[in-house]
Amino acid sequence: MKIVIVSLNALGDTYLSAAALAPLKKHFETAEFEFIVQKHSASLVSALGVEKFFCLEKKNIANILRLLFVVRRRRYEMAFSFFPGLLNTLFLLASCSPVKAGYLSFFRRRDWYDESQRVFVHGVPREKLFWRPTMSYLERIEMVLRAFNLNEKVQKPRVAVAGSERRKVGNFAVVHLISKMCEKSFSADAIYKVCRYLARETSLKVFLIGRSEEFGDSLQGLNQFVEPVFDAPIHVLAQLITGSSIFIGVDSFPLHIADAMEMKVLGIFGPTNPVSALSHPHGSVRFMKQSLQDVTGEEVIDSIRPYLKAYELHHTGI
User: Fold this and answer.
1) CA–CA distance, 229 with 217 (Å, rounded to integer)
2) CA distance linking residue 82 with residue 142, whole number of Å
């Protein structure tokens, strides 16, 4: 039996979708599991132990049609999609699988927060199963499994890193304040001020993670306060995060890695809900604004200072 999980959204969605592997493998012990992902998620699914996956190299018509042809020829017996989105829906429907379960949605950002968004099995909506913004992202996955009569709890998978069974904590913080989605990212000025504050007013060395293209010219000013770690491979990123004294970040993929490790985490949120992203009782700050771009550096500093004091990761007197 071949089972496919379609996850053509952002890296974080693919990471969360991988949480379904454990319960699915429990019920279908002899099945072969495959993923359909974007190219940027290839190293992630590999690090999570997925042996077979197909990548969408670029989001253009030629590549989409080419991959659709490959997927249709795989003849999957089951197909799952755990998050809304045009490509997820397209590949789920085109999988030729006689058994399909997931969200049928062509507008990811609009439908993500739509309380009437329902789970479909075989194209039939399950009226009593719909996700609300006050629920966790993992509950999205559980709803799809439950609609398929698999009543299982899912947990965020841990990215394997060397020596993770005995986590050694270093005297540094890992900071991630920018996301692919603009509304979940801080402005360059806010990032500069927060990094300067952490470097000057705490006892920690600060590693700033992200993609180099996201920072542009602002990197020059940041270099005096932080050690940039940009475009790092997944296993390097996981090693850095799990070895830190604290992870401070927005609602994005690196936050999920830290959350899964049950380490000291401070999540910073704007339009999304901490309850949705965090599966363990970590510190969190939420600004009730539609975009973190509208939050000043001073506001961020004032909000995180009490947590740093509580975690005893500061100089006396701040």
Assistant:
1) 16
2) 9
102, β-bridge pairs:
81, 120
Task: Give CATH superfamily name and number for 2-147.
Answer: Glycogen Phosphorylase B; (3.40.50.2000)
Tell me the C-alpha distance between 266 and 305, whole Å: 11
Q: Residue 126: what pLDDT? A: 58
Q: Is 269 left (phi over 0), alpha (psi -120 to 50) or beta?
A: beta
* Exposure class string for 113-136: b at 16+ Cβ within 10 A, else e: eeeebbbbbeeeebeebbbeeebb
Residue span(s) of the chain under CATH 3.40.50.2000 come to: 2-147, 164-310
pTM for the full model?
0.87
Which pLDDT does position 66 carry in this prediction?
96
| Residue at 275: amino acid letter | V
- CATH code of the region 164-310: 3.40.50.2000
Confidence of residue 96 (pLDDT cuts 50, 70, 90): confident
Asked if the model's pLDDT at residue 252 lies above 80, the reply is yes
